Each structure stands twice: as structure tokens, then as C-alpha cells.
Amino acid sequence: MKALALATVALALVSTPALASDKGSERCSNRHLAGSWLTTFAYGSDTRLACSFTLDRRGQIVASECMKDHVSKAGYTISGKVVADRLCQFSGEFEVPADVEGDPATVLMLRGEIAKDRDMMVGLIYPDVESFFEPLAIVRTADPRGRKLPKPQLPVDPDDEDEEEIEFACAAEQDGMSIEAEAEAFVGDATSTLHKFSAEFEAEPSAGLVAGDLIDFVVDNIVVGQAVLEDDGDGEVEAEIGFNSRGASFPANFPTGFGEGSVVKAMKGGTEIACTVALDD
Questions:
Q1: How many Å apart are CA 183 and CA 169, to the nearest integer?
Q2: Mean per-residue pLDDT for 199-222?
Q3: Cα separation of 176 and 215, whole Å?
Q4: Using a CB cutoff of 8 Å and minimum separation of 24, what contacts does 5-13 make?
Q5: Pairing of strands 222-228, 230-231
Q6: How confident is the model at residue 17 (pLDDT cuts 50, 70, 90)?
């Protein structure tokens, strides 16, 4: 019952997340959903499955393992897809095969919204538009590279009531390219501690960049990371970097003065795009 127990615990701890669609500047795509996820859902009259599954960058389920709540071992699988639109809403379907206990094959429809940090999806699951709707929560367990997400913990003193979290973000589009950057920091009485930063770059064929090109990510004129462009499967190329205080550590040269007004760039040679960081209210 391990998978079911994990899913039950994970979903029981979930509170209503901040949804990406609450902020007009947020954008989502299928690649933001790539990685491993965990959920439980009901279908039929009395059947419930706990499933872990992996999405590729096109939103297709490429691996899964499920179990029923009254079965002592795993062995069920699902197929289907979960895709995102630019407004950070998701839709898709779970295809559940028939099994030896007599439950017929079922296709369940999914619809909902993606949380702001893109580590959770919340919505509804249903067999068709004329049937009952069930609430659905899907929680990310690993990123696209298979790295497990850390257990939630704050790198600050929990007794310090003056600590608060602030968020920064920027985005820009030009000449067939786009860049997005996000950061989070904890702020105390007179100091702030940056604990999360990510930047994403995308380019259309018209930008003249191809898969395999090496992109420099620059913050306030300092190269803080590099990433190789990859084909996203839709004719565009993309690259991203990310740092946090719990795993992928910040480089030693990351600007200590990062904050509102900082400039984030993605560049290769003379081709570049930049955005200016602002507080993300």
C-alpha cells in the first residue's frame, strides 16, 4: 500500500495553492509539466486509484504505476496526457485499462489550473460532461531531470516573526525569442536571503538558434550559468537553469545585490534577450 499511503499523505497536506493564472504575467507550456507526479482519483461507483506517473515535454504519460485502495500490491498502469495552455490551465485524460476484477476500460477527462510554482495542479476529473465531477489534486515529485523535490523546509528561524517571503519576476519577448525569470527571497529586519532562482529561454526558428547551441544566462552582467538548447518537439528550442538553497546551490559569483531592477539575460554571441526584475506582487 506504499503508493496509496504516499498519495494520501501528500494530498492531505495540500492547502489551496497560489494559481499561476492569478497573475497575468505568468505563462505556461507543456514543458513546465515535464517530470514525475503523484495523485489519487476515483472513478466508477467505488473504485479509487493511487498513481505515480511521468510526463514528457509534450505532456504524454510515458511511465506510470498505480494501485487500487483495496489491493495490496501495485500493478496497474494508466496512459494519456496532461497538457498546459499559456494561461496556466491544464486539460487531459487518463486512460485506465480493464482489469481482472471486472472493471471496464475507462477514459477520464481532466481540467483545472496549475499552481504558481508549477509543482501542483488542482481541478476536476470526470468520465464525461454528463457525469459527476470529482476534485483532483496532482503533486509533483520530481523535476524533468528526475531529481526528487526536497521536503518542504524553510532556511530561516521559524521563531522570527519578522521573516517574510518576497518574490521577483520578469519576462520579455522579441525577435522570436522569449525569456522568463523568477526568484524568491526571505527578508528579515535588515537583510534578505535569496533562496530560489530560475530562468527559462525559448527561441523560434526565426531567431537563428538550433538545438545544441550553448546559452549563457547572465545576471547583472555576470554569467551565472549555461545550458544547452534542446528541441521542445514543437519546432522551437529551449534552455533553462535553476538554483535553490536546498539542492542545486547558487554559484559563488551570483550577484549579492540581486533584487528589483536587476537585469537577467540569455545570450549566445551577439544574439540576446533581457528582462528587468520587479517585485512580483
A1: 6
A2: 94
A3: 15
A4: 6/38, 6/50, 6/52, 7/38, 7/39, 7/40, 7/50, 7/51, 7/52, 8/40, 8/50, 10/38, 10/139, 11/39, 11/40, 11/137, 11/139
A5: unpaired
A6: low
For residue 116, which phi and psi values (nearest 5 degrees)? -55, -40
Query: What span, in angstroms and rounded, lies between the C-alpha atoms of 217 and 224?
Result: 6
Which of the four pLDDT bands, split at 50, 70 and 90, describes residue 194?
confident
pTM of the entire predicted model:
0.56
Report residue 14's pLDDT band, with 50, 70 and 90 as the boundaries: very low
* C-alpha cell belonging to residue 211: 538545438
How many CA atoms, within 13 angstroms, populate the side-chain half-sphere of residue 141?
A: 18
The type of residue at 185 is: A
Please state the φ and ψ torsions of residue 109, each to the nearest 5 degrees.
-90, 145
| Residues 28-60 pLDDT 10s | 888 888 889 999 887 766 677 888 999 988 899
DSSP conformation class of 87: T
Say how far residue 72 (Cα) sits from the centre of its chain. 31
For the chain, the distance separating the N- and C-terminal CA atoms, rounded to the nearest angstrom, is 42
Which residue is listed with cell 501542483? 120
| Lookup result for grid cell 540576446 | 272
Q: Report whether 40 contacts 7 (CB < 8 A).
A: yes
